[in-house]
Batch of 3 targets.
Target 1
Amino acid sequence: MLDNALITLVISTLIAGEATAGIPGTPIAAAFQSTRQGVNTKPTAYIYKIGDRRYGFTRRDDVWDEAAGRMVHTETQQYETTFQLSALATQNPATPDQYTASDILNLCASILQSSTAIQTFEAQDVGIERVADVRNPYFLDDRDRPEANPSFDFTMTHKQIIRSTSPVIEKTEFQILTV
């Protein structure tokens, strides 16, 4: 599975589980978008890819396709892709019932590990391997107020499948030459 398809699957799964988790309508955006100006004023979760790890060896298969009259060569590589999900939610002492950024991420972690999400991932031949602990560092915002920027990492498993075909040999010619 390619990156954009995997990110889309994760985002759509999180959005589908938001209502059940109690955070309906929370935007999930790709982090570090070049067109974004400033910080979202609404509590928002951000996703970005940390990296890929190839797992095991590449599997190679050759199968004859009768209908097309060609040999189909398939190479399959198992991958572990790690993402980070972070959140920003401005804290206001006047609204103590508002979810914190850490609350939003803990609920997102629950969504990713829910039975519904696992079934959604498995239907696409994707697995969720690990959801790490939520970290909660603080920084000074643009108003010189301390604000949390929690995050957690999670690892997905998926396959990269590359197929190619070989044409049929139409003509062979044998020559016996003397030396």
Target 2
Amino acid sequence: EKTAELQEMDALCREGVSILSDESTPLRQFGELLGRQWGLKKGMSDLISTREIDKIYDAGILAGAVGAKLLGAGGGGFMLFFAPKEMHENIKRALPDKKFIPFRFEWSGSKIVYHSNG
């Protein structure tokens, strides 16, 4: 049996797919889901986040991100911020020691971008 948190996370996932599948829905709503999901996940255990991760999250949100969540498999990873393009510079300034990697949705599917036979 799933916990209430897992049930809500499942519902958020379905809502996210719905938002991404409907071109008439503002993409900002997807960004808002990221923050809601991150809050649910953090509430499941004190071991999900750290003070450092919380500082990064808070700085990005205060600088204009709509939502964010941690990506990765423990011991490191990425903080994914969803923010309007006009807020990107504010977020970079708020987190000057962090690397900024631009992201965009790719609608044509997976592609090999680098291949080496060596």
Target 3
Amino acid sequence: MKVDAQTLEIAALCFATAAHAGQVRKYTGAPYIEHPVAVAELLRPVNATPEMLAAALLHDVVEDTAVSQADVYSLFGPVVGDMVAWLTEVSKREDGNRAARKAKYRAHIAAAPPWVKTIKLADLIDNARDITAHDPGFAKVYLAEMRLLLDVLEGGAAYLHGMASEIVRQAA
């Protein structure tokens, strides 16, 4: 079933909530859906389109659930489908160590359109807030990776890029 722009965000929220049912956030045990919702909320001040909000809500469904990329395209159309495809991790364990896998993803997201980079910035901000609050040891690793990602996320919303850069700066 395809949805129109007016119901797109609600449909994406319902779909993502069902897809992530039973999943919890690593550090807090809160329902996982709180993360995609927080990412979508970070996009509101930058006048995100309904498609961007839907993609924010769906950004982890292919990576973390049984939902396929084809499912996203079928249900939410090519614009949202393309955004989710850009946001989905492209590396696999066989691509090497963590650094190699992160480099592969950086190269992938560097080629993304600005609106996708904007969603990724919101994702980084929410993840960084959670990780720095609950896991200072891993935060050092995550923030170093985030610093490298920020270099390729130029072109995303300047407001969110500034927020993300400030998180990294404060942690230094």
